[in-house]
Amino acid sequence: MTAARTVRLRRVYETPKDEDGTRVLVDRLWPRGLSKADARIDVWPKDLTPSTELRRWFHGPGQGEFEEFRSRYEAELDGDAARAALAEVRGLAAKGTVTLLSAVKDLERSHVGVLAERLR
């Protein structure tokens, strides 16, 4: 099984499933209203999350454009700390299923989709 088939995307608010494998939270902030016990997070690599500045720009007043967000976020993923965290998650995916979890509603048009592409 290749890593491309073992990276899944889910909202963190969905009930955990056994087939999730390693559950990786990819949000910088803890999801509102969710207990750590209910979330069942295995790994929380904050170095893979968009910077606070980028997150505020994208979700702020006037909302940033997705393609510009993607470009800025990919540049952040090229940093040393993010590359190390990417290597860690790729290693987990090589061993089995990895599920990227986020509170965002549109997983594909967010940092989660960009991150999944980078991992695959």
UniProtKB/TrEMBL annotation:
Pfam families: DUF488-N3i
InterPro entries attached to this UniProt entry: YeaO-like (IPR052552)
PANTHER family: CYTOPLASMIC PROTEIN, CYTOPLASMIC PROTEIN-RELATED
Protein name: DUF488 family protein
